[in-house]
Amino acid sequence: MEEHSFSEQTRRCAEYILQATSVVVLSGAGLSTSAGIPDFRGPRGIYNRLDIPNPEKIFELWSFQEDPSLFYRFYREFLKELSDIAPTYTHFFLAALEQKGKVEGIITQNIDSLHQKAGSRKVYEIHGGVHDTYCTSCGGYYALSEAREKVMVEEVPQCSQCGSVLKPDIVFFGENVKHLSLCEKLAEKSDLFFVLGSSLAVTPAALLPGLCKGNVVVVNQGDFSASYLDPKKISLRVNADLDSFFRGVNRELQTHGFSLKIEENAVSRKNS
Question: Which of 61, 102, 207, 219 is deepest in the core (most CB within 10 A)?
Answer without folding.
Answer: 219
